[in-house]
Amino acid sequence: MSTDALLQVAGLSVRYETDHGHIDAIQELDLDLIRGECLGIVGESGSGKSALLLAIMGLLASTARARGSIRFRGTELIDLPTRAFNRLRGARLAMIFQDPLSALNPYLRVIDQLSEVARVHLRCARREAERRGLELMASVHINEPDRRARQYPHELSGGMRQRVMIAMALMAEPEIILADEPTTALDATVQAQILSLLHEVRVRSGASLLLVTHDLGVLAQLADRVGVMRAGRLLELASCEQLFYSPTHPYTRELLAAMPKLRVPA
Amino acid sequence: MTRGVWIAAGVLLLTALCSLIVPAMSSYDYFTPHLELVSRPPSWTGGHLLGTDPLGRDLLIRVLWGCRISLLIALVASFMSVLIGVVWGATAGYLGGGADTVMMRIVDVFYSVPFVPFVIVLTVLFGHSLWLMFVAIGAVSWLDIARIVRGETLSLKRREFIDAARVAGAGGARMIFRHIVPNLLGVVIVYATLTVPTVILFEAFMSFLGVGVRVPLASLGTLLADGAADMQAHPHLLLAPACMLTVLVYCFNFLGDGLRDLLDPRRAR
Questions:
Q1: pLDDT for position B269
Q2: Residue environment code for A105-121, b if the CB has 16+ CB neighbours within 10 A, otherwise e
Q3: In chain B, whose CA is at the least distance from the CA of A118?
Q4: A64 touches chain B (CB under 8 A)
Q5: Which residues, other chains included, contact A106 with Cβ-Cβ below 8 Å and sequence gap of 6+?
Q6: Contact check, Cβ <8 Å, A86/B163
Q7: CA A86, CA A104: separation in Å to the nearest integer?
Q8: Contact with chain B for residue A108, Cβ under 8 A
């Protein structure tokens, strides 16, 4: 276990209780997130990738039980009291959601949502918080931030909304950014822009990025290391090159083989 | 649609203004009996546009006074019930678990208190007063709003932006009042405007039983009750306040619908 790990997940299990017995979303998962790296998690639907992020952020539904250990800089996050968690969330751990439309409050203007993070965590006054919000909007390449800031989420395009989400995540300069399929809800061309923005942002801020997706292409572009999940277990965790060029687990090979090839035959 | 809202708002405003201004300017008042003018039918020329009641008092003035009292009770009591209902319901829904159970069982207990005896006991204890009507009606009508708001809050809580707000570090009161309550606004406003006519009817009911507004002060409820008693001989005594009540209730309903549309930011402007 590396001493440089920001986030250490050990023996994590997440179990959902339902009326028809229980479902194990994650079983005995071990994972380290190193400072400044981009760790990609890939897996099919239902493999437990999203449950992993929810467990880290303490957002699991009340019907779910997490066991094991998730340590952030030595602080145990599992069963951390809400009050303590609220100080971490948004400030040191940030999250980017899959669908930015449903993840933004429809009744709040963009600038109000952005500045909320600054007001809660940085204890900024309103004006200062809004100034920072505008700066961040510019830094995630939103044109005319002054005008956009006064609009409501439904008035922005999908890509624009995801930029707002990213700006929100960056507001308090977090050490870890979790991204749950940040490009799935977007058009292909916008996906590419958002990916390059995520890369830019990570390099600039030095934050670690835990990126969950079912798109191997996304990971090939962004990730330093890639983990493959299936049925709640982490099957393989390797550097990006190693995983793509010499996968060890049969499932990883299947996954790679299933990728559509767009190369022109030589 | 928007035009309809303005018309409804205009009619309500006009009614409210008339009920304030006309009685003040008229030479008639709502309480002095004129025994030589008993139960006159409506007429353009007789000086009493809507006629007079069995005590010879001008019906127009009494209807306008009734509007004033009914609107006052309705608005104050509705405001109180919305305030209490939203805070209670949103808090219960947001906290969930044991707190939710306890808070909603308290609502159930209030529900099972029989309203009429409750108000009668209150009037016996504290005497007749307008304030009592505010408190009594407000205390009962917040229950529905609390239930509705709690249900809405439960469903809102599962929306992703609430998770997102939690991820942004919002918790407790900020979560409730900044993220949940604004999203309840549509429901609350519609329900509040539906509460206003209900409260007007509540008040009429209480006045009919004699525990509401006390004579000679009139509300639309007491006027309706008086009119109903004499409706075969003098139908105008019933018709005038009934029409007034219908117009008010209709306008409040229309206003509620329109406001919901206007306040929805997703609606194209």
A1: 46
A2: bbbbbbbbbbbbbbbbb
A3: B168
A4: no
A5: A152, A153, A154, B161, B183, B265, B266
A6: no
A7: 18
A8: yes
The one-character DSSP state at B142 is: H
Q: Dig out the tokens for A185 from the structure.
A: 């809800």
Q: Are A244 and A220 in contact (CB under 8 A)?
A: yes
Q: Distance from B151 to chain A by nearest Cα, in Å?
A: 17
pLDDT digits (tens, 9 = 90+) for A213-222: 888 888 888 8
Is A265 a residue whose pLDDT tops 70? Answer: no
Q: What is the CA radius of gyration of chain A?
A: 19
Phi, psi of A7 (to 5 degrees): -125, 125
pTM for this predicted structure: 0.74
Which chain B residues have a beta carbon less than 8 Å from that of A93? 167
Residue in chain A nearest B182 by alpha carbon: A107
pLDDT given at position A144: 92
Of B161, B179, B189, B267, which to mutate for an interface test with A (greatest number of A Cβ within 10 Å)? B161
| Res. A61: pLDDT tops 90 | no
Q: Which residues of A touch B163 (CB under 8 A)?
A: 59, 97, 103
Residue B266 confidence (pLDDT):
66
| Inter-residue long-range contacts of A245-249, CB under 8 Å, 24+ positions, other chains counted | none
Residues of chain A in contact with residue B265, where contact means CB-CB under 8 angstroms, are 106-107, 152, 154
pLDDT (tens digit per residue) in A117-131:
888 888 889 999 999
The verdict on a CB contact (< 8 Å) between A82 and B265 is: no
Tell me: pLDDT of B88 over 90.
yes
CB contact (8 A) between residue A91 and residue B161? no
Under a CB-based contact definition with an 8 Å cutoff, are residues B55 and B35 in contact? yes
Nearest to B123 by CA among B110, B138, B135, B139: B135
ipTM field: 0.76
Sign of CA dihedral B111, B114, B115, B119: negative
State whether A106 and B160 contact (CB < 8 Å): no
What confidence tens digit (pLDDT) does each residue in A94-149 have? 999 888 888 898 889 999 988 888 888 888 899 999 999 999 999 999 999 999 99
Residue partners of B25: CB distance under 8 A and separation at least 6: none
